[in-house]
Write a structure and sequence with these properties.
eight-stranded mixed β-sheet; 9% helix; 532 residues; nine-stranded mixed β-sheet; 4 helices
Length: 532
């Protein structure tokens, strides 16, 4: 029996629906980050002003161009799961820190460009999970030392560029595993001494640049003269800079007997002093306190002394707190970022700070607290978020803050607060909620009950809406007056997930997590769908 017209029509639309679902699913798996362009396995995010590595990079990406952005930090999760990546361009950014493990999933990586950034420290074992890496460009950074295990794991690298840095120290064995190396550039650095036999394990080396350094031609460098004489095509124009009587001499032309030491000719230790413990030039560092107040800083300084317990960054021009910005400083007890211009905070900006007791973020432009921002801050006692633009708080925002005694949310844009937000705060003694435009509907009744039972709100929080309750102190409004009517209910009932006031596509209807654009004769998916 043949299907009727209605059944045919239904089957047709069912097929279209399945096709659209397939396309949408493919978009989720292999979507393209906002502001980037994607063609096949090539993801192009060049010159888009990114301050962090964008989310949503397709898992099938083989080439990723992130050059010419403003990225300051590479976290260990930025490239997680992108296991087919072969080419990664990160040059011409502002990168100061790369977390160990950042490249752990990039086992197919063949080319990596990190030149023209602001790297000062090269973590040991950073590249140990990239065994296929053939070209690595670290030139034009501020790297100060090459540690012994810096290149452990990349035994097949053929081209390594370290020129135009601030390298003053190379540890014994730093290049020992690089047996396939063909090109090594170390020119334009501050190198005074090169450990004995540094280049002996590179039988394929055809280009070596050592010129424009501060090589001290004493007895500890005599080996280099012999080595270069046997390889006349390598390291042209490598000259002595000291002592004064040898300045400007080409090292291969100096006889071994002329490399003399004034003191005992003992081998100098080739272990570099850790470079991470430095005080920013414009700041002061005393008693494990870093004071960078009112210095015009636009970003959080990197490579601070690891033992610091307090950092003062108030009254600067900082707009962004990147991932892991403070994670190396496990002893931190206090961070003050008040009166900056912070509007963007990475969800893992404060990861690992289990000793932190005070976090001061008032007087910024924070609109939303990222999910999990305060997770793990188990010692936090004081949290100041006042004078921002916070418009919603997820119900589990403070789930790890059992020690918190003072929380200020004064002067923000909160219209409602989800029931259970303050439940984990077992030690809370002072709560500031005033100067927020609270919608006193049925979803906020719990807060009135909470404040009545716990008289800890000392700033005098009041209702702004509805009109019948405007300017009434929340703690004094009777429970039966907290009622919901239509629009009010929609704007507040999903506040615990920051769903309120979502942007809805033109002519569509949005309710909770459902966007209804039916019967509108659309020819394509509407742009800018609500995030959730």
């Amino acid at each position: 029996m043949l299907p009727n017209v209605h059944e045919k029509w239904t089957a047709y639309h069912w097929g279209i629906w399945v096709l659209m679902c397939g396309l949408l699913c493919a978009a989720v798996v292999n979507g393209c980050p906002h502001k980037c362009s994607c063609s096949g396995s090539h993801v192009d995010c060049q010159g888009q002003g990114f301050r962090t590595v964008p989310k949503g990079i397709p898992r099938n990406a083989e080439r990723l161009d992130l050059d010419r952005n403003n990225i300051t930090r590479i976290s260990k999760v930025d490239f997680s799961g992108i296991k087919n990546l072969r080419v990664l361009h990160l040059e011409d950014n502002q990168i100061t820190v790369i977390e160990r493990g950042a490249f752990q999933d990039l086992k197919q990586l063949e080319r990596l460009r990190l030149n023209r950034n602001k790297l000062q420290v090269l973590p040991e074992l950073l590249f140990q999970s990239t065994p296929k890496l053939g070209r690595l460009d670290l030139s034009e950074n501020q790297i100060q030392a090459v540690p012994r295990k810096a290149f452990r794991g990349i035994t097949t690298v053929k081209n390594l560029q370290l020129d135009s840095n601030h390298i003053s120290c190379i540890e014994d064995g730093a290049f020992r595993a690089l047996r396939d190396l063909e090109i090594l550039t170390l020119n334009n650095n501050n190198i005074t001494l090169i450990p004995l036999s540094s280049f002996n394990h590179m039988p394929k080396l055809r280009t070596l640049r050592l010129h424009s350094n501060n090589l001290h031609c004493d007895c500890h460098l005599s080996w280099l003269s012999d080595w270069l004489r046997q390889r006349r095509g390598l390291a042209l124009f490598t000259q002595c800079m000291a002592p004064a009587n040898m300045r400007g001499l080409n090292i291969p032309d100096v006889q071994k007997k002329d490399f003399t030491c004034t003191g005992p000719a003992q081998a100098k230790p080739h272990t570099c002093i850790p470079q991470a413990s430095v005080c920013p030039a414009s700041c002061t560092c005393n008693n494990n306190i870093v004071d960078c107040r009112r210095k015009g800083l636009t970003e959080i300084p990197a490579n601070l002394p690891e033992g610091i317990v307090e950092i003062r960054l108030e009254q600067n021009l900082i707009k962004n707190i990147p991932a892991g910005a403070f994670s190396p400083y496990k002893k931190l007890k206090r961070i003050d970022l008040s009166k900056n211009q912070v509007s963007d905070i990475a969800a893992d900006a404060f990861t690992g700070l289990r000793s932190l007791t005070s976090l001061v973020l008032y007087g910024n432009k924070i609109a939303e607290i990222p999910k999990g921002l305060f997770d793990g801050l188990v010692s936090l006692q004081l949290l100041l978020l006042n004078a921002n633009k916070i418009n919603c708080l997820r119900v589990n925002t403070f789930q790890d803050q059992q020690s918190l005694s003072l929380l200020s949310l004064y002067d923000n844009k909160l219209q409602t607060i989800s029931k259970g937000l303050f439940a984990p705060l077992r030690s809370i003694k002072t709560l500031h909620l005033a100067q927020n435009p609270f919608m006193c509907d049925c979803h906020l009744k719990w807060l009135a009950d909470y404040l009545f039972d716990n008289p800890i709100e000392t700033s005098g929080a009041r209702c702004s809406h509805p009109r019948r309750l405007a300017n009434k102190r929340i703690s004094q409004v009777k429970g039966k007056k907290f009622r919901c009517t239509g629009t009010e209910d929609y704007r507040s009932r999903l506040s615990g997930e920051c769903f309120q006031d979502l942007v809805c596509p033109e002519k569509c209807r949005c309710e909770g997590t459902v966007v209804d654009c039916s019967n509108l004769k659309l020819t394509k998916l509407p742009p800018h769908l609500p995030e959730h």
